[in-house]
Every structure is written in structure tokens, then in C-alpha cells.
């Protein structure tokens, strides 16, 4: 009977969600050294970073499952459980896409042609920035819960999400430029390699897309 | 005379056991919120609980004790056989104690109050006769078990909403917290002091006029609020530890407030729950010493002190461990939320104590926590557990009654 009071508290999903986005971001961040190694054709380093990406993605995945297990339908929370689960899902996709990009490059033993190397790296950086901004926004979750999703804290998070949108728009622009740069040299490439380069660019861009969707999900929470 | 001593001895032993159990288990719920939110260390919590539980029991525990002692059983039909009431009260104590033991072994969330009231009604209805139960009074008590968590929940909701509006949702929550928290301290101290003065003190032989009561309560509350404000003014934001909104420091400000509400909660708990242990004991002592049921003997102060002391011993022996365990599990109840729950529960309980209604402290606190949850203050509440509490709420009464009936017939056959 002593635990009557203790047990009415379900396990809070807030800190775990913050930890999860942290894992997802750290995973995405690894794309920078990975792509740098691809450009340098440093196969040993590529394999090493690819291993790190896989580990982080796996950790994020496990954490996602763990959080889901601790969010039974009987939980009464200030925001709908479905919205939190959706948020978790898109957070996880940041790590998934990172793994996909590195997977395609590794699997096809791809290289990134010199003329587009700089633009490619910049593009990767912006995507990582988007993931970082998503992390910064999600890290405000506990403050949001403390403030009861009202007032000044909501404005603060709204600003963060706006910044996130701007970063995502920037990655879109860079993506267009990168594609046209690739188009300029595609005749010099092996056709299949060229097709997969387009594919990898699209996949990389999805990291920022997912980060932006994290922002959308957070916004939904704010509107409750 | 020997039989009398046996009765008093047995009742004192059972009552002490019950008080010990309340101290070991129940108090933890009242104090763990403060420990969980790190407003108090375990040592401080035990000290606060010991002082205020004892004070609550002795200063304001009289009304509820008197209800348990003579408000539930109509002694008219058994005026000629006073020993029946002695057997019954002994049986009720033993039944409630046993049931609590079984329940805590199995982790069932049961209430001390529900089991003792169930036990008394049980032995009276079956052992003496259905007409021996003051059903009107019992009805009021049972109604209060529904009303008290609802009331506490509603008050907690209002308090927490005001905290959100005045402090947490503002641009600079820290400055707002420093300004408004002393006001909350005043309100907490004022409510609890006033109800105690108005309703409790006459049992210790003090009578204070209504006007003086208000003046005294305001004076005490202002003093405590000023002391609180002094501590609060010493709190500085640690810019390294947190982000722009300074919520971590804000919670430290609320921590001061929570020390006050924790005292109030311990006091309220002592004032209401001590009766569960000593109400039946008081009845036995009164009958055994005077030899009759209707005697208008005052409640001996040693009985209240025994109850208060038993609670403190329970707290010191097992309570420490329980507080630590519960405290660890309720970290979601940060000081800003915890104080709202505690203040709402303490207010409800103290008012009930003043009116002489035995209510469940823990259920009231659970109601208050749910109220904070309704104000979107709690990150996650497990509704399955809330449902389980509701079930045990209902089951405890017949369980206590059944055991009490069993022990009643046993005592009647065995005791002189």
C-alpha cells in the first residue's frame, strides 16, 4: 500500500524522447566523416565510420522499442500518446536515413566525383544542421511539459521550429544546386553510378526532411 | 479489575501496532513527495514528519478519534453489556491491522481508514445487531471518501493552474516565482493554522475567540512567509546548469514552499490517521476504567500521545526505507507540482479532521495528484493503477468487516 502513490506515476516518455533524438543526431553527425572518407577513397575509415553509424542506429532503434513498451494505452498524459509515438517515429527516421545513405554507398562501393565533392559535403553539413536543430527543439520537451504547453516556453519552441524550417529550406536549395552540378558531369560517369548518386543525394536530403517533420510533430503538440 | 487491565493492555498493544504500521507505511506517502522532489533529505523528512505527525495527532486528532470511538456504533442496545464493545473494538483493531499486513505483503493499495471503519461497522452489525450501527454517520463517512479525493483534486487543479498562469508560462519564471511563492507559503500556512486553531485546539483545552483565531493564524502565516522569502532571496540562478527559462532554479524556489506544505501534510496526516489507531483504544480505555459505555470521560492525552509516538516509531524503523523507495519513483512530482498536490490534500484532510470525518490520506493525495495531472502538470499517470486503487477502495471495507466479525466472536469466547 505504500507504493500506491508511487505506482500511479507511469514512466515519463519525456527524457527518453530527448535521449532518443540525441542518439539520432549523433548518428546523423557521423555522415560527415563518412562522406569525407568516401571522397578521400579511404576504405578503412569508411568501414570504421559505417560501423559507428550502424551501432548508433541500432541503439536508437532499441530505444524506440523501449519507449513504445513503456507507453501503454492506459497512460494519461498532457498530450495525446499518438502524437508522441509519431514524434518518436520521425526522430528514428533521421537515424534510419543516415544508415541508408551509408549503406548504399558502402554496398555499391561508390565514390563521389571530385567536381561535386565540396557541394556534397556542404549539403551533408546542412542536413546535419537540420538534425541538430531538431535535437535542440526536442530538448525543450521537458520545459514544455513543465510549463504545461503554455506561454513563453511555447513561443521559444515555435522560434526554434521556425529556424529548423529555414535550415530545411536551405538544404532544399543546396540539393537543387548539387543535382544540377551532377547533371553537368553525368555524361562523364558510368550511367548506373550516376543514377545511384542521384539516389544518394535524395536519401541524404531526407535527413533534413525528417528533421523538419520532427518540427511539425512538435508543433502539433504545441497546438493542444 | 484484572480483566480491565487485560483489555487496556491488549488495546494499547493493538493500537500501538496499528500506529506503528501507519508510521511505517502511510506516512511515507505524505513525506515521499518532498523527498522525491529533493525539497528535503530523508533525514530532514523524518524529522519533519516526527514533529508534525505528533503535533497533528495531539493537537488536532481529537475530533476524528471521537468519531471512531463513539460515532459509528450506537451503544444504546448494549448499555448493559459494555464488554461487548470492548471485544468489538479489540477485534476491529486486530482486523484492520491484519488486513493491512496482508495487503502490504501483496502490494494492494488499501487504506487504513477504510479498513478500520469497515471493521467497526462489521463487528457492530453482525456481533451486536444491524440497528447498532449509526448508518447515517457511516453514510456521511463513506460519502466523504468519494468527496475528499474529488475536492483535493479540484483544489490541486486550481492551485496548479494558478502556478502555470502566474509563474511557469511567463517570460521570466524565476523572477515571478520569487515574487509569488511567498504568497503561496502564506496561504498554505494560513489555511492549516486556521483550521487547526478553529477545530483542533479545544481538545487540548484551549479556547480562542474567532477574531483572535484569525489574527493568530495571519500572524503565524506572515511569519512563516517572511522566513520563506528570506530563504528564497538567497537562491541564485546557476547559468551553467540550465537553459533560458531557468526552470531548474524555479523548482528550487518551489522547494522552499514544499518544505512548508510537507509540514502541513505531516500535520494533517497525524490529525486524521492517528484516530485509526487510537479511536478504538480510547473506547476500550473509557469503558474499562469507568465500567460503563455512556460515560462522558475526556480523551486521555496519553492515548493521543501513544498514537503519535507509535507513528513516529514506525516512521523511524521502517518509514525511512519506504520513503526512500517511494521518493525515487515519484520524481515527476517536481516541487511546483508536488506542493500543489500536498497543499490541496493537506487542506482537505485538515478540514475533514476538524469536522471529525475519518478520510483516507493517501486517497486524498492521489486525488490531488490527479488534479495536477488534469491541469497538464504530470507527464504520465498510469490509469490502470488508479483503477486498482478504486477496486481496493471497495474491497477493503468488507474485508475489514469480515475479519472483525471473526475476531469478535473469538474474543467473546476467549476473553473474560
What can you see in these coordinates?
The complex is a heterodimer of chains A (224) and B (416). Helices cover 80% and strands 1% of the residues of chain A. Chain A is mainly α and 224 residues long. Chain A has one domain: Phosphate transport system protein phou homolog 2, domain 2 (Methane Monooxygenase Hydroxylase, Chain G, domain 1). Chain A is elongated. The model of chain A has no long low-confidence stretch (mean pLDDT 92). By secondary structure, chain B is an all-alpha fold. Chain B has one domain. In chain B, helix 4 runs antiparallel to helix 5 (112-128), helix 7 (173-200) runs parallel beside helix 9 and helix 8 runs antiparallel to helix 9 (247-290). Chain B is elongated and about 75 Å long. Strand 1 of chain A pairs antiparallel with strand 1 of chain B, so a sheet runs across the interface.
Set out the fold topology.
The complex is a heterodimer of chains A (224) and B (416).
Chain A lengths: L3 H4 L6 H16 L1 H9 L3 H27 L5 E2 L4 H27 L6 H25 L2 H6 L5 H34 L5 H32 L2
Helix pairs in contact in A: 2-4, 2-5, 2-6, 3-4, 3-5, 3-6, 4-5, 5-9, 6-8, 6-9, 8-9
Chain B lengths: L1 H35 L5 H19 L1 H9 L11 H25 L5 H17 L6 H34 L4 H28 L9 H24 L13 H44 L10 H29 L5 H21 L5 H14 L6 E2 H32 L2
Helix pairs in contact in B: 1-2, 1-4, 1-9, 1-10, 2-9, 2-10, 3-9, 4-5, 4-9, 4-13, 5-13, 6-11, 6-12, 7-8, 7-9, 7-11, 8-9, 9-10, 9-11, 11-12
Approximate shape of chain A: elongated
H-E string of chain A: HHHHEHHHHH
Q: Beta fraction of the residues of chain B? A: under 5%
Give Rg of chain B in angstroms.
22 Å
Q: Report the average pLDDT across residues of chain B.
A: 85
Oligomer: heterodimer
Count, helices of chain A: 9
The sequence of SSEs of chain B as H and E is HHHHHHHHHHHHEH
CATH homology superfamily of chain A: Phosphate transport system protein phou homolog 2, domain 2
Task: Note the main sheet of chain A.
Answer: none
β-sheet strand percentage of chain A: under 5%
